[in-house]
Write a structure and sequence with these properties.
Chain A is of the alpha/beta class and about 260 residues long. Chain A has 7 helices and 8 strands; from the N terminus they run αβαβαβαβββαββαα. The longest helix of chain A is centred in the N-terminal third of the chain and has 18 residues. In chain B, strand 4 and strand 5 form a beta hairpin. The chains are: A alpha/beta (about 260), B alpha+beta (about 100).
């Protein structure tokens, strides 16, 4: 796994976050309490003198890990976050991804409409999944939350598209270029608090965090950030191998994403 | 001490029965108060179906709570009802740790 220059990554990401805050009057960040979205909040604090100057949204289906809920409360208090919890219901199957897909997207649509957000800061990385590799730093979504991945705006010389059409919104992706080991190296450098589920106590830990139903732990003895970094330097397995939703065919994932699934 | 412990175990048992019969927000709050007073430390969730595609899959699942000695102290649903809505309720277990990951 290639280890990139953290200062360069941080500079670019803070630039993107500041551009987003400048171009859109109503911005929010999605926060799943995972390592990536928590890193983005830290980058936001770096960009804006120690504060996260926009609300953070947790799309909550009610079956996240109890440790995740505990972490949410403690970091919200420690960093003074303006937290919005958008509750998603678990309803009958429509697409085969009703739990994570349709229902969470509906919950997000509801909160976007209620608060009038024009842009969402989302913590995806290109190295996580082939579909995400197609994303732009500023990625437009239609009113129906659809993503036209075949017709994306150009992003030349750090100029990012920001014109809103037809009540759509933009997704802002500040850490697209980061990879998994960069995130952990940054966490180590900045001493960012992370969800304890990432650390092993008994030979297992979570390498990627979703909800209690669709995430399984991986075998690992890494009990702190340094040991995780050492482990990643020799790992040959995929980061998201413990996530059920990623086991579907890439075509299906792309289709769902184009329809608005996050 | 034994009297206190059996009183708190009784309270947990009573509140978890009420919760299983009627998983409302109020009953979850009462159950949470009881299990915290009784020293619950770990949880273990059982999803009874492979996919979570409907509210029925959620309502069939359950969670077990254990104390510091890993002794079972309560069983509870993983959901709550609010009118016609069925929602996950695991935020009420914040502070507990997974038994599967515990040393």
């Amino acid at each position: 796994m290639i280890e990139q220059d953290l200062n360069e990554l941080e500079n670019k990401s803070t630039y993107i976050i500041r551009e987003g805050k400048l171009k859109f009057s109503k911005v929010a960040a999605l926060w799943s309490m995972g390592k990536d979205s928590t890193t983005v909040l830290q980058l936001s604090r770096k960009a804006f003198m120690g504060k996260v100057p926009f609300p953070v949204i947790h799309i909550d289906n009610g079956i996240d890990f109890p440790e995740t809920y505990e972490f949410r409360s403690s970091l919200r208090d420690e960093w003074g976050l303006e937290l919005i919890v958008a509750k998603s219901e678990i309803k009958n199957e429509l697409s085969g991804f009703s739990c994570c897909g349709e229902n969470k997207t509906k919950a997000l649509q509801g909160v976007m409409k209620e608060y009038g957000f024009e842009a969402l800061i989302v913590s995806i990385r290109r190295d996580e999944h082939g579909i995400r590799a197609k994303e732009r730093y500023f990625s437009p979504r239609s009113k129906e939350f659809k993503w036209d991945y075949k017709n994306q705006p150009l992003e030349l010389w750090d100029n990012y598209a920001s014109r809103l059409d037809e009540e759509g919104h933009y997704r802002i992706h500040p850490i697209l270029d980061w990879n998994e080991i960069d995130i952990w190296r940054y966490i180590e450098r900045e001493k960012i608090p992370v969800n304890p589920l990432y650390f092993s106590e008994s030979g297992f830990r979570y390498r990627s965090l979703g909800c209690t139903h669709c995430t399984v732990p991986v075998q690992s003895d890494a009990s702190n950030v340094g040991e995780i970094i050492a482990e990643l330097r020799v790992s040959t397995s995929e980061e998201r191998e413990g996530r059920e939703q990623d086991k579907e065919k890439e075509y299906v994932m792309q289709k769902l994403r184009s329809l608005g699934y996050m | 001490m034994d009297t206190q412990r059996s009183a708190c175990e009784e309270a947990v048992k009573r509140s978890s029965e009420m919760l299983r019969n009627l998983p409302t927000e109020d009953n979850w709050t009462e159950f949470e108060r009881a299990y915290r007073a009784c020293g619950a430390r770990y949880y273990k969730i059982y999803y009874v179906t492979g996919k979570l595609n409907s509210s029925q899959d959620l309502t069939s699942s359950y969670v077990e709570l254990f104390d510091a000695e890993k002794k079972l102290i309560a069983t509870a649903p993983v959901f709550k009802r609010s009118g016609n809505r069925v929602e996950g309720a695991l935020s009420h277990l914040a502070g507990l740790r997974s038994l599967d990951l515990a040393a």
